[in-house]
Amino acid sequence: MMEKESKRPPCFKISVPGDDSKKKDVLDKLQHVRSIIVKEMNHPVNNAYILEKVLDEFISTHSLDNSETKMENMNLNTYIQVEKKDVDQQLFVTAETSLQKLLEDKVESVATHFHWAIRNCEQNPKELKDLLINVVEHYKNNHTKCHPDSRCKRDLNYEPKRSTINKPIAEKLLLGVIHKSVIFKSPDHFVLARDTSYVESFNNTMNMFQDKRIVFSDANYNTRACLAVCHWNENVDRGFTSIWNPERRNAPRSMKGKKNYKSPSYSYRNNIWKRQINSIYL
Ligand SMILES: [Zn+2]
């Protein structure tokens, strides 16, 4: 039996983020435009026609010879690293994957730039923001404002390892990512370049002493917490015997190498024991 052919023509869909009130807003405007067009044309029109008409109108009023400027005028939005509440809810045709492609390899290295900017801003929030903005220029292969110590400045034969940004939309996207970042929004919280490694290290030690899969009594739990503190105090910042440098091209920040630490010591055990004995016999 022949399959029944669908009568409906194929359609395309445009996603507009927003809640019901947004939906109503858009539909109302659509209806408004429809009524004007129907009046003019004196026959019914479909949504695609309205949309085309509106976009044509927009393009004709914003028509400029330079296609680059046109791109910028279109006020393109994206969800990349942007919280929903921060998105300017204007109509946009979804093409997120293709937008992301424009930035391809930038994400990891931009993170490296952020780390570098924090360490080199000399505790000045304004400087930190300037350094972050300059990331875009660096990727456009303009190194005027790059740090004198960076390779793009010192190495006369410097050639960018990664593709440079040449499309205005990619530039806008990257700038958007920087502007929306927490570090850019509150630079004063980051200028000290503090990290959480000690906290993480202590938490690891805690997990060694307090196995999550075992239920301890309160006394036991407290004792283990105290032992973890003793162990951490004794072994934090201990020396290392070598540094392992894995070659990981895709993760440049891990290039700094992994330290192979000396074995931990346990003198606190003896100290506790001595104290206990002394408390009994002295
Ligand atoms: Zn540079």
Give a brief rundown of this model.
The protein has 282 residues and is mainly alpha-helical.
Over the alpha carbons, how many angstroms does the gyration radius reach?
Answer: 30 Å
* Poorly predicted sequence stretches spanning 5 or more consecutive residues: 66-98
Q: How many helices?
A: 12
Overall geometry comes to elongated
> Which small-molecule ligands are present, each listed once?
zinc ion
Main pleated sheet: 2 strands, antiparallel
- Summed over residues and divided by their number, the pLDDT gives a mean of 78
Strand content: under 5%
Tally the beta strands.
2
Topology:
Blueprint: H1 20-41, H2 47-61, H3 67-73, H4 96-103, H5 106-120, H6 125-139, H7 151-154, H8 168-180, H9 182-185, H10 197-209, H11 218-235, E1 240-244, E2 258-261, H12 267-281
Antiparallel strand pairs: 1-2
Bound molecules: zinc ion.
Report on this structure.
The chain has 282 residues and is mainly alpha-helical. Helices cover 53% and strands 3% of the residues. Strands 1-2 form a two-stranded antiparallel ribbon. Helix 1 crosses helix 2 (47-61), helix 5 runs antiparallel to helix 6 and helix 10 (197-209) crosses helix 11 (218-235). The termini are far apart. The site of zinc ion (ZN) has 5 residues, from loops.
